[in-house]
Amino acid sequence: MPQASATRLPQLSLHPNLGALGPVQASARLSRVKALLEYYASIHPADRLPARADFDPLAIPRLLPHLMLVRIDRASRRFRVKVVGNAVAMALPVPLHGRWLDEIRPEEGLDTAHMIAARQAVLDSGLVSYLYGRTPTRFSLDFANIEYAHCPLAGDGVQVDHILTVYQSEAIARDG
């Protein structure tokens, strides 16, 4: 009796960012960060990074005040702020919309070195980046901890050309 040959389907290899995203989602503590990570996972193709075109702001309206979107000029490795939600803008000592992060000077009240370094790590690795705790970035508002996630986007699925960030802070407990 002849044996049936099994047709092998090509195996899709999962994009490494999906492997990084799982632990970040498990670590996230605050509701808005969890919600953005859940949405980001839902638009993330299995074999490539999601594109800016995959991101639909209307799908997550309550998160918009807490988001920042930067466009990357790959030739110069510079970051230009395209979108700053109202909650983020109010927390920062200087306006960022439309500005290159490396053109903002510390004497303006904001040292962007940490903001740039965190985004350069995402640009270099193509992986989501996460922080919960204190950050060296100076904010206008007083809070206990901040949680954020930097999510890479790539028009071609490979080369990061935008980074979507969600920020959420925890209020300081006050006595009395």
Q: Would you kindly provide a written description of the structure presented here, covering whatever features stand out?
A:
This protein has one domain (16-170): Beta-Lactamase, CATH 3.30.450.20. The chain contains four helices and five strands, in the order ααββααβββ. The protein has helices at residues 16-27, 31-43, 86-91, 113-125; strands spanning 67-73, 78-84, 129-133, 145-153, 162-170. Strands 2-1-5-4-3 form a five-stranded antiparallel sheet. Helix 1 packs antiparallel against helix 2 (31-43). The chain is globular, with a radius of gyration of 19 Å. The relative contact order is 0.19. The mean pLDDT is 88.
Tags for this model:
single chain; 176 residues; alpha+beta; Beta-Lactamase; five-stranded antiparallel beta sheet; 4 helices; globular
Given the structure, what is the number of helices?
4
Instruction: Report low-confidence residues grouped into runs of 5 or more.
Output: none
- The total count of strands amounts to 5
- Overall mean pLDDT stands at 88
CATH topology category name: Beta-Lactamase
Q: Judging from the principal axes of the Cα atoms, what is the shape? A: globular
Compute the separation of the termini in Å: 85 Å
Strand order of the largest sheet: 2-1-5-4-3
